[in-house]
């Protein structure tokens, strides 16, 4: 196969998987289960693939924060922002200082863990909704314990990130945040800010493959917009099963490659 044909196939593959990832993120989440392996498949080194994928998918998170800004609980913003900044930067720096071969061996485990986290997010979300529907008195969570619980979660987001959203919601709920709209908006803010810190770190350290990044960003954005319009017409449990099966399949593939 000639070099030009191979290059065109790489771009076609990247466009296709970016469209799928954007739609998945809009409808259920888990788009990284498709877009990150796609970067690896076209020959991007593991760490650069993760960095490029993070940058490409981040704008969609920013628009979500803008849409949910009215539900943010103001008294928790300093705690969440500091944990997100410290966790996001440290996670990104640890990633960039990991050897390529080491990270490649960690990839299937990260995909497996993220798939399992995503799988149990459904029951946890139902528990959170049931909890938020009960009468309750809003109380201020203990700041320092909440900070030290959120910090490793935000570190994970900066390092890899898939499946971490419901961990943030669970931590907030355990520390007394019970209103569902507040939980969701604070989750989106923490994930967006952690990833933004990772994005800045990746860009400053030159870890982003920009020609792939921009293609993925544009097409994921387009399909994300379309997916958001049809998200409510599709059963959420079915979408979650599809995402989990996708993640598990990718994890199994990378385990097989290393065997």
Please give a structural write-up.
This protein is mainly α and 259 residues long. Helices cover 80% and strands 0% of the residues. The chain has ten helices and no strands. Helix 6 (143-159) runs antiparallel to helix 7 and helix 7 (165-174) crosses helix 8 (180-204).
Summary tags:
259 residues
Structural class: mainly alpha
Sequence stretches where pLDDT stays below 50 over 5 or more residues: none
Q: What is the rounded distance between the termini?
A: 28 Å
Tally of helical segments: 10
- Major pleated sheet: none
Instruction: Report the C-alpha radius of gyration, rounded.
Output: 18 Å
SSE pattern: HHHHHHHHHH
Characterize this entry briefly.
With 259 residues, the protein is an all-alpha fold. It is 80% helix and 0% strand.
Q: What is the topology?
A:
Layout: H1 3-27, H2 32-41, H3 46-68, H4 77-96, H5 100-133, H6 143-159, H7 165-174, H8 180-204, H9 210-230, H10 236-258
Helix pairs in contact: 1-2, 1-9, 2-3, 3-8, 3-9, 4-6, 4-8, 5-7, 5-10, 6-7, 6-8, 7-8
């Amino acid at each position: 196969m000639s070099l030009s044909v191979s290059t065109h196939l790489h771009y076609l593959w990247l466009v296709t998987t970016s469209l799928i990832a954007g739609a998945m993120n809009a409808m259920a989440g888990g788009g990284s289960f498709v877009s990150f392996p796609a970067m690896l498949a076209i020959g991007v080194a593991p760490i650069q693939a993760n960095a490029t994928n993070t940058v490409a998918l981040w704008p969609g998170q920013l628009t979500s924060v803008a849409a949910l800004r009215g539900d943010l609980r103001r008294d928790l913003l300093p705690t969440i922002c500091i944990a997100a900044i410290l966790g996001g930067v440290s996670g990104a720096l640890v990633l960039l200082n990991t050897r390529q071969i080491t990270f490649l061996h960690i990839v299937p485990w990260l995909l497996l863990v993220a798939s399992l986290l995503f799988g149990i997010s459904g029951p946890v979300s139902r528990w959170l909704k049931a909890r938020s529907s009960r009468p309750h008195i809003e109380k201020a969570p203990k700041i320092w314990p909440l900070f030290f619980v959120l910090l490793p979660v935000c570190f994970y987001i900066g390092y890899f990130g898939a499946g971490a959203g419901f961990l943030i919601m669970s931590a907030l709920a355990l520390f007394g945040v019970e209103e569902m709209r507040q939980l969701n908006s604070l989750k989106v803010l923490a994930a967006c800010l952690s990833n933004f810190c990772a994005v800045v770190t990746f860009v400053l350290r030159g870890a982003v493959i920009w020609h792939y990044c921009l293609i993925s960003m544009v097409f994921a954005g387009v399909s994300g917009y379309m997916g958001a319009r049809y998200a409510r017409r599709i059963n959420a449990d079915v979408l979650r099963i599809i995402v989990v099966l996708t993640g598990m399949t990718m994890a199994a593939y990378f385990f097989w490659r290393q065997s």
